[in-house]
## 1
Amino acid sequence: MGVSNKRQGETASVDAIVIGAGFSGLYMLYRLREAGLSTRVYETADGVGGVWYWNRYPGARCDSESICYNYTFSEELYNEWSWSSRYPEQPEILKYLNFVADKFDLRPDINFSTRVTSASYDEGSKRWLIQTDQGDQITAKYFITGVGCISTANVPNIKGLDNFDGDWYHTGHWPHEKVDFTGKRVGVIGTGSSGIQSIPVIAKEAKHLTVFQRTPQFSVPAKNYQYTQEFLQKSKENYHGMRHLMRNSVAGMAMYYGERSVLEDTPEERRKVLEAAWEKGGWAILFAYNDLLVNEEGNKLVAEFVRSKIREIVKDPETADKLVPDHYYGTKRAIIDTNYFETYNRENVRLVDVKKAPIEEITSKGIRTSEGEFELDAIVFATGFDGMTGSLFKIDIKGKNGVSLKEKWENGAKTKTYLGLTTAGFPNLFMLTGPESPSVLGNMPAAIEQHVEWVIDCINHLCQNEVEVFEAKPEAEEKWSQHCRDLADATLYTKTESWYTGANIEGKARGFQIYVGGYDGYRKICDEIASKGYEGFSLV
Ligand code: N01
């Protein structure tokens, strides 16, 4: 089947439609093409990159180590690309994804600056009809979403934003040109990963920075450094070992994963382990022990260690008190930083606790909390995303009998998937890194490669066996969703409010929609289901 080259406002028919040209969409396109299927990718942005196209805020950097934050499907690609430092900066990741798109000549099959508005399954023709904001109407046998887990920005509904005389930005929709804060009074709302990365950089440039913090967060030093040529050479020589570790580890990263309980060590041994992990930086503390996220007592000990470090770093005890978190370590997304807590020792930085004195209004001059008004020239919303379901619900996806995904999942209150990849009533729909898959609990490119490879093997199987309709069975998805909930409930994750649980979005139903059983365990389950002739699916 050939690809129609008509663009914008086209009416065409292809084998597969993919939404998104980030890590997921690009690799999916590569594999669909390789399998000989005609494919069209739709992307809202005018370039590739997905989240790395949009998140251009100061200090934006990934928290997976660079040598693992890439594709591993091609040894040639792995060898051709060299990262500059331990944690890749946003511009470098975007450059990498452009390099991939160029190397494999992916752009001709991507419609940029085009948003998919709806997708509906027609039971008669057994095809999906996709409509875009550019007037395209395309039908396809397979409909694949690569919309990302955290790509729908959350700008909280605070009274008065329209009245603000200054400029405002959301970290997830940062302008392409540099925003210059020199000489300005800046306010940052939010202290998650984006806030914690941008605050130290903005503080250095701005005349004054006020941080509006609702919940203090644990963060540990990233200890970033430049890679040497020798290190890069070695990691390339170890391509197969690296790939194996990424594909067969809990979090998709080639790193040390602790093998004993926090409680097995004496206090002295534990202190030594945690001090060493602190010095190593990055994820070392989170993975120093094997039960941090299930063992309440052990978690409290590690959390207390990190709290003591915050108190050591922050000179003003009152500010330190405000910065010390009281949830379980790692249950809100663990954060790694460069000079975050140190930033509060600067004269031009002030921390405001908006849990104690909530933001009441944005005025023409700045932000007014219950304790007073803070005059600002610019406001940065580092307020996160409507995670897991937000981007799927932005598209009107309708399955059999005209039932929408939003209706079926009761607006997220009852998300049900099979393997986080499919959902009953929506035949031939695949959701890359969808809710109830491991996705954000590890290194995304590793999760994405596993999903894309499972999907392409499945599609090849369907083609070879002349299967027209592939659909999760309701009982299989019921079991999977329950399994996901049971696993999550056995951890400390569900004991903390976070974007993982939907708590960051006003009015959003609470639920933990991520598979916590680890990348390695999940891969085995997916492979086993495929090897049993796609157990739990109906193939017609
Ligand atoms: O968003 P967040 P993020 N008034 O939701 C606060 C990935 N990521 O963009 O905790 C006042 O974590 C909110 O407060 P609270 C990573 O997976 C990765 O920072 O809800 N405050 C919180 O402090 C990450 O987890 C990287 O009480 C409000 C903050 O805003 C995910 O993206 C870099 C508020 C939001 O934190 C999201 O991170 C960046 C309100 N009305 C992002 N509403 C790396 O790879 C929200 N907040 C390093």
## 2
Amino acid sequence: MSSIETVLTETRVFPPQEAFKQAATISGLEQYTALCQQAEQDYPGFWAALAQKELDWHKPFTAVLDEANAPFYRWFHDGELNASYNCLDRHLSNRGDKAALIFEADDGTVTTVSYRQLHQRVCRFANALKKQGVGKGDRVIIYLPMSVEAIVAMQACARIGAIHSVVFGGFSSKSLHERITDVGAKLVITSDGQMRGGRAMPLKPAVDEALSFGGCEAVTSVIVYKRTGGDVTWNARDLWWHDLESAESDYCEPTWVNAEHPLFILYTSGSTGKPKGVQHSTGGYLLGAVMSMKWVFDHKATDIFWCTADVGWITGHSYVAYGPLALGSTQVVFEGVPTYPDAGRFWQMIEKHKVSVFYTAPTAIRSLIKLGGDLPNNYDLSSLRLLGTVGEPINPEAWMWYHKTVGRERCPIVDTWWQTETGAHMIAPLPGAINAKPGSCTRPLPGIMMDIVNEDGSHIDGTGGGLLVVKKPWPSMIRTIWNDPERFKKSYFPEELKGVYLAGDSAHRDDDGYFWIMGRIDDVLNVSGHRLGTMEIESALVAHSLVAEAAVVGKPHEIKGESIVAYVVLKGARPEGDEAKQVVAQLRDWVGKEIGPIAKPDEIRFGDNLPKTRSGKIMRRLLRSLAKGEEITSDISTLDNPAILEQLKQAVS
Ligand code: WT7
């Protein structure tokens, strides 16, 4: 896929349809521009008014943006609120019986949970957590499949001021262990297993193993939700979820917390081997989730909203666990995979639940095109009114298919650019105001001050590309990296850039002022919308007893966006033939265990050495070219050992 090249020549424009525009929260370009101007003129005032109007405060704030200790910004910091109260209690009087969650299991079984029922379950579970000694500020690890329980667990933590850290169920016991110890968790919530594509897969063994690695002494109990009914090894610290929940009462007083109190920590990959614990606030974060639901998803009380992301990622935090609930929306939550029982599952579910707003990743769209590009035609998709994408650039071909075959040329598409660190959408075409262009995330949300700068932080017009930055702090921004404030400063506010937030992406701007994301500037890969650090994978590889050295790069991939290519130098001789195949299988398996199956290299190439400069620096630029199969025509005069390039041309197959 040559997405960068194709987007650079993309000229099609799709204006909002008149009827959509008329009914939209932000209707027309003038209204968008007016909001942007308001934010320009009185930045704190703009956000303060929204925070007052959209959130329920226990104690109203008087302070808005505190920049005294920049870049450790604070928003609304003398106000008090509770996220769970905002997501549940405030709906009980007028929409208690409205469906909050329509949960569809892997096998198609549907469970509907009303706001009142969800409130009850969250209260009961919050009481149970308290009884386990969990209180305000304590960290709780959640390692659960997509389920009502995962949402209950997150909301219950929020209710008592505990800080959750959700770990995606696809991460290995090693990754889980790293997060448990870094965050200093007191309790882990998991399930016996998970159902995916008709098969039960165990989950709890990873928790048992993680805790056996040591350094987790702070974990006093493990709560286990029974999902598959599979056998589990039972330890003294284990407790069944259902036993705890049934013993509790239906109400738990929310713990009021400061707006800056951490709501959660979510780990994401950076350019070193160690994942970063991105810490989010309560007030500012929730405001970001709410405003983007309203502006970008044009939220309506009658919507059936479906975001297909797992709660293990930021998308599942902002647009499953918090955003839709804060607005009293009805949302679909799906346990399974898009290809089971066949590649029509998403379309079938849209028809069945009359989904009106559908939000998924380009990688899912591309794989569903490949597996059954005509399948949407077999379903009634007339309930849809808005489509969204997230996680990576969408290539215009996939955009057009989504527009025609899923949206039937009626539905606007919002291509949302944002990050774990930004908490909420930052750049996206507001569907009733901004003309979409396939492949561009278009323009920033009101109150979000995006820019393109050069290496020294100066503004450039961006037509030739540059660094994507945010010029002013915004409410839902990352507050710090847990346990590592220095890394926070260095990663996001490097001195050369003079105080602007560095996103880590390069972008260019077209003549209409639209942003086009070109890719990461750091050693971070985007594989099927999952963010992975090349260093993380390299560290995993060199931890294997056979491996002396490893370098990992990304290579464009038709479905996944990027695939993982690993160059490996073994301690012994360079393997060939069957032996090479065997080592490849071993190493892939190993990375799966060290990090998780999503990090397994797609290709492994062996060399006697890696291409290095005379000073010993690995020449990644060359490795990227080799991965793509390009002839090396560039200057390799600084290369110490040109002969090994030949060896590294071939992947083991
Ligand atoms: C990185 C952030 C935000 C939720 C999912 C990913 C890439 C994200 C887009 C988009 C082009 C995108 C960027 C960004 N990205 N959305 N619409 N167009 N690129 O969150 O794991 O924190 O990754 O994903 O490179 O920096 P994440």
## 3
Amino acid sequence: AKRSGRRGFRFYTNDLTVEAAANLALESQLRRAIERGELELHFQPQVAFRDSEVLGSEALLRWNRPGTGFIPPDQFIPVAEETGLIVDIGRWVLREACRAAAQWNAGGARHTVAVNLSARQFQSRGFVPMVEKILAETGCHPQWLELEITESLLLDEDDSVAYALSAFKHMGLSIAIDDFGTGYSALSYLTRFPIDTLKIDRTFIQKVTSDRRHAELVKAILSISRCLGHRVVAEGVETMEQASFLNVYGCEVAQGFLYSRPLTKPEIGLLPRYLTPR
Ligand code: C2E
Ligand code: CA
Ligand code: CA
Ligand code: CA
């Protein structure tokens, strides 16, 4: 912000006050939203590149606000993280996702549900036993749940993250690195933590067929992953060209609008086993 003279400075402080007030209002609305059951989980299918078989889905949070409609997570999760509300919301998300997985897999299917976690949840007391309790209560087998974390969490010096991840691994859950390539990628963490899946960020996938450098980078990520035994999910696949590139270079799993947008829980229940790319 520019502080040009007294007027400019006053304007700047006013802006901050307005923003703080807006966040405060959002916080109390969000608190009520939880109580009133206005939060909803949608699920975006993850499919095998080879034959478009549905392997699982990612749980994505939506706020269905009366009179406004669906509010995307980017508009309220940052406030939930700042205020710590994400701990309660995250617990609700985990329970809903586990409940859905238990329901979809009841007949012997194997549909894995991926859940996004925030750093604040790892810092909350009793996080690991809470996850264990939710699995038991919902009848969700650990193999049906994948936890998505971001690279920045692994750079945290605090060893509570390392402890939690190895505990989750022991329980039989899988761990995915979300938005891979956008953080401070320190490749060493790939060998230090029990990681199963890398999710290549949409910004790389978008340019894979138009920009040689991005293409080479994605090929290199796929080659490293193959050597280290990581499963790779390509995020935000929108075109057939992207899909065939990724398939040729050995990427196994696709998530993106080419196959499906995020769907409601009943819609996932009705999904065919194989999706047709559109
Ligand atoms: P994310 O984890 O990277 O999730 C993928 C986002 O990309 C989703 O946006 C999804 O709808 C969108 N997407 C998927 N395929 C395509 C595509 O082909 N093209 C384009 N343009 N977009 C695609 P969404 O649902 O708005 O979620 C935004 C972010 O909010 C998520 O990014 C995640 O970081 C966060 N989030 C969502 N649910 C939760 C949650 O339960 N807990 C936490 N902590 N964060 C969440
Ligand atoms: Ca994610
Ligand atoms: Ca992502
Ligand atoms: Ca993202």
